[in-house]
Model the fold of this input.
Amino acid sequence: MTQTAATIAKQIGHKALYMIGAKTKKMLAFDDGLIMSVGRNSKRINRVKITLNAMDTYDVEYWYLAYSLKKMEDKSKLITQEAGIYADGLLDSIERNTGLRTSLN
Done:
């Protein structure tokens, strides 16, 4: 895992990752960020892509990824995205856009 991806995972926190159903073994790290799967939710989001931008804030994309083998078509789509999220706002962004809780408070 890259240093940036490890930092993002640490900022979100192990308890929050567990609560949203993110599996650390299935996280994909890339140069400037992290892609993770999340658990089932009402907004049909199953992937979250967090990218560190030049302003030292995060751009977060919420995706529904699906592929039909029967029809051989990609049904993936970007549901929503947010830009300029500070590290302390990542949990609020995830809760707001997926409907999944990140804490018991």
Summary: The chain is about 25% helix and 30% strand. The chain has one domain: 3-97. The mean pLDDT is 94.
